[in-house]
Write a structure and sequence with these properties.
With about 425 residues, the chain is α+β, with helices and mostly antiparallel strands. It has four domains: about 100 residues, conserved putative lor/sdh protein from methanococcus maripaludis s2 fold (Beta Barrel); about 90 residues, Elongation Factor Tu (Ef-tu), domain 3 (Beta Barrel), CATH 2.40.30; about 60 residues, OB fold (Dihydrolipoamide Acetyltransferase, E2P), CATH 2.40.50.100; about 80 residues. The strands form six sheets. Strands 3-14-17-16-15-18 form a six-stranded antiparallel β-barrel. A hairpin with a 3-residue loop joins strand 20 and strand 21. The protein is elongated, with a radius of gyration of 47 Å. Pfam families: Beta-barrel_RND_2, BSH_CzcB, CzcB_C, HH_CzcB. It comes from Enterovirga aerilata.
Length: about 425
């Protein structure tokens, strides 16, 4: 009876201990004399049944994250190659978009008159040399009349001079008569030159004056019998055309039809035309940063609205400081063919001050802090592995890697925080 009770006690103890320690369970089976079925081959002895996988098979070895190419793409993890480059030191300053002073024209009438035509509307494009307005001007009519009279008199005096010269050469006329004709002809030439200079002062070019002389010059006709010149009919002498000196767009229209212009207390300008294919960025640089600024430096311009920044170049650094702000005016020229930048807008400019080459640099988005260490995730056949790195110098976007990474290795450059989260999840599951 005692032997039977002892056997039952041993069996109960074996069943209890065998659940946790298989080796002890087998010994108790032998002592008790019972042949319990051995563990199933599908049981790995660590609590995993048939078809189960160890946690290590899901996350891989410690510090590894197993991911397929499809999973990497779905997580939008950008992979880039570790390589050398240059770290840029940049100075960030506020700025304002302004028009390029070399590409703005304020179109004015140089004469006193009345606006007869306004050929351009606000916002319309203008070609260089295109007529944008027409004035009616008595001043222009008088200047043209004076020029035409001088030219007509010149033709007459030239004919008389040539006649007197021929007679003098044949000793038919007196020398005094020849000298008087030559002096009168010279005075006529001078009057034509003075009338021409007056027209040029009113804005007429030499080509315009020559065209006027041809258009209104007297003509000789055989029907006149004696070959006397017949004057052309003159009209529109008061019309004065105003042309644009540059190509661009009309950004201001300052007068209306019928407005008097050019006189005292009257408007002088008719249009403002600007070529906005290139604009200026007016920067205010503190005096302490001026030593790092020089003409020719590259500038990156951004509006802070998520749009792509534009590249520009510094074209002017003022040698004079603003007495109130203790800053200097710096101007950068930026291409604006797509009309991204509008004069008057506030922008932020980053001036490239210097560049320093490094053997290996990685983007800041590739770095993660784990356990007080800076790590990157290096791409391998099964996914990524955590790699501790030693960092060096840095700029706004990149950091130098001094130790822990070799050139050519591929790393998770963007969205590396996803890998950090997966790694932390795996370590938490191991703890439990």
């Amino acid at each position: 009876m005692k032997k039977l009770l002892l056997c039952l006690a041993l069996i109960g103890l074996g069943l209890l201990v065998g659940t946790f320690v298989p080796s002890v369970s087998n010994s108790i089976r032998q002592v008790a004399g019972f042949a319990l079925p051995p563990p199933s081959k599908s049981d790995d002895g660590h609590g995993h049944g048939a078809g189960g996988h160890a946690e290590g098979e899901k996350e891989g070895p410690e510090g590894h994250v197993v991911m397929t190419a499809e999973q990497i793409e779905a997580a939008k993890i950008g992979v880039a190659e570790a390589a050398g480059g240059a770290l840029a030191r940049k100075l960030t300053v506020p700025g304002t978009v302004t028009t390029d002073a070399d590409r703005v024209a304020r179109i004015a009438g140089k004469v006193v008159g009345t606006v007869a035509e306004m050929r351009k509307r606000l916002g319309e494009t203008v070609a260089k040399g295109e007529v944008v307005a027409v004035l009616d001007s008595r001043e222009v009519a008088e200047a043209r009349s004076e020029f035409f009279a001088a030219r007509t008199n010149l033709d007459l005096q030239q004919t008389l001079f040539e006649r007197e010269q021929a007679l003098w050469d044949k000793r038919i006329s007196a020398e005094q008569q020849f000298l008087r004709a030559r002096q009168t002809f010279t005075e006529a030439q001078l009057r034509v030159e003075l009338a021409s200079q007056k027209l040029q002062a009113l804005g007429f070019s030499e080509a315009d004056i020559e065209q006027l002389a041809t258009r209104y010059a007297p003509v000789r006709t055989a029907a006149a019998g004696s070959g006397a010149p017949v004057a052309r009919t003159m009209s529109n002498l008061q019309k004065y055309e105003i042309r644009s000196p540059i190509a661009g767009r009309v950004i201001e229209r300052l007068v209306d039809l019928g407005s008097p212009v050019g006189g005292e207390s009257e408007a002088k300008e008719l249009y403002v035309v600007a070529d906005l294919s290139s604009v200026w960025i007016d920067l205010a640089v503190p005096s302490g940063d001026l030593l790092a600024i020089r003409e020719g430096q590259d500038v990156s311009i951004s509006a802070g609205n998520g749009s792509e920044p534009s590249k520009g170049r510094i074209v002017f650094v003022s040698p004079i400081l603003n007495q109130e702000t203790r800053s200097a005016r710096v101007i950068a020229a930026v291409d604006n063919k797509d009309m991204t930048w509008r004069p008057g807008s506030y922008v932020t400019a980053q001036v490239l001050v210097s560049e320093e080459p490094v053997d290996i640099k990685v983007p800041r988005t590739a770095l993660q802090a784990i356990g007080g260490e800076q790590v990157v995730f290096v791409r391998n056949e099964k996914g990524f592995e955590k790699r501790e790195v030693v960092l060096g110098k840095a700029d706004d976007t990149s950091v130098e890697v001094v130790f822990g990474l070799d050139p050519g290795e591929k790393i998770a450059a963007t969205n590396s925080f996803v890998l950090k989260a997966e790694l932390g999840k795996a370590e938490a599951e191991h703890v439990h």
